[in-house]
Design a protein that fits this description.
The protein is mainly α and 68 residues long. The chain has one domain. Helix content is 68%, strand content 0%. It contains two helices and no strands. The termini are far apart.
């Protein structure tokens, strides 16, 4: 269940990031219309980066160094 929740969070927040990047291209866009304040957005972004690190960590552990 935890993995499903993590996947849903990643998908939802990626959609938010895409939309947030596209919005300024519209003429009627006003930054005051966004209800998600920048500090909270960065908090969620940090959580997304943490999730990505946890997902990638096992892959990095499996790789064998060329030096070894």
């Amino acid at each position: 269940m935890f993995e499903e929740d993590r996947l849903k969070f990643v998908q939802a927040f990626r959609n938010i990031m895409r939309i947030r990047n596209v919005l300024p291209s519209f003429v009627k866009y006003d930054v005051d219309d966004i209800t998600l304040d920048p500090q909270r957005f960065e908090k969620f972004r940090g959580k997304l980066l943490d999730v990505n690190d946890k997902i990638k960590a096992p892959e990095a552990a499996e790789k064998v160094s060329i030096i070894d």
